[in-house]
Amino acid sequence: MTQRLPFPPYPWHDAFVAPARPRSEVWRTVLGAAVILLLYIASLQLLAGFYVSRYGAFMGSFLFNQMALGRSPAEMLVLLFSFIGMAAAAVIVVRLLHSRNALGLTGPWPRQALADFLRVAGALTAFNLAAVLLPLASGELVRNPDLPWGSFIAALPFGLLGILVQTGAEEMVFRGYLQQQLAARFRSPLVWMGVPSALFAMGHYDSILWGDNTVAVMAWTAVFGIFAADLTARTGHLGAAIGFHFANNVTAMLLASIRGPMDGLALWVLPIDPASEATVMILAVDLMSLIVAWLLARLALRL
To answer: pTM of this prediction?
Structure first.
């Protein structure tokens, strides 16, 4: 049975999925996803326990909650590196529940994955830098008053590494583990592309922060997940998807962020309420930019 439009043939996807085929039962995948979530939560609880043991119950809880907000460079860096727990959880589940090499999560061609990561991350970072110039020139973006130039430069290499950890961990779980396991069981891209993207969007649910814009934010995130899944299927590895995700988050976390949570490393901020109507317009513009970024990534990969 051939794959129908609008999806392309994805000739490299079979090799990416192959390691998951021997143990691709639905119950095993559902259990694996649940265990990854529980292990990741457990890693965050260990971090919270460290804060409490080091600073006492009240101050430790306060510092941990501040870390989750990411309003300072130190808090943001701890938040980004906390995703090591997510990556470790995926590795543990793949090894123990599926009895396969965890390196298979990234695909069968590590050198090509690295090369494609650099191509996509480089091209899209340049595009995003250019895209920031217009709102910067118009005065919509303002310098982050809590982040002097010296602090930004000092934190920059750690921020880049932290974003690589965070985006790499999320791609390992959503476009690695989930996409492989579901594609090994179901032929339709509506399943192996749609389900992980929907779960990825649900992971970004925050009605307290986004208010009435929550559904729009989740929809944008789902589209992002679909594009990342498409790049993974086209290339047969995670390199391009990680590069796509990395370039997006470098822009959103290090260059221009909405003023509020997770702006601790951002050089410029947009001083609006995330729950305001203005955010919807920003999301609409960002959606157009996202589509262009996906096309640029394919151009850089010659796909």
So the answer is: 0.94
